[in-house]
């Protein structure tokens, strides 16, 4: 790596211990340096395509090669919005990785949050020709940052809608299982191949870049959702069958009621 500051001392046990702990710090630093390098490379790669699209169109417009149409301006505008979303998501991710997201945890009813998220997505589901169903019969209390949980729900729901074809169905369910709060978002959509499943939570990973671009995703939604859920002491899992559908399951430690206990 770039960093070569390892200490090599044998014998004297104090010194050896010091050297060992110094070396493990150096490895951690090196690791985070390597991760930063990779992150920057990924971001540059992600932003290059929309930027060069934008530049190409602007040049064609100013050369009079294409006519200024409302559709063209709308799609250029869409490109800038997408870049804004990528930057917003990256900021959340960077703060989370630095342990600096500043969660404000209060008792929250997961059923109510799910219900609000479903309401917020009704119009989009209808537009996409999908049935959107909520099964959350009773309150399920968790200790959580409500805004961040809303973000998780929003990501899972908008993915379910985006990756499901017309006449499909999306079911959001909230319940309790073995002292855990369990949220599932199940769709009858395009599904994810078994070999791709281990990658879905990686940043910028997508099964089908063309479809993802057409639907305006950033490739960071699930990475952020995973981060937020694990920061809450929970787990997020995915099960899927191509052409049959996908189920995301979020498990969080449940509270026995709205009071803290
Ligand atoms: P984005 O949706 O912006 O691409 P995400 O991190 O939210 O980014 O998702 C990563 C990839 O996982 C998507 O591009 C898609 O290939 C796959 N994916 C996510 N949710 C679903 C789903 N409900 N059904 C099928 N594929 C999905």
Automatic annotation (TrEMBL):
Location relative to the cell: Cell membrane
Domain called HAMP: residue spans: 1-34
Occurrences of domain Histidine kinase (ranges): 42-256
UniProt name for this protein: histidine kinase
Organism: Paractinoplanes deccanensis
Whole-protein residues included: 333 to 593 of 593
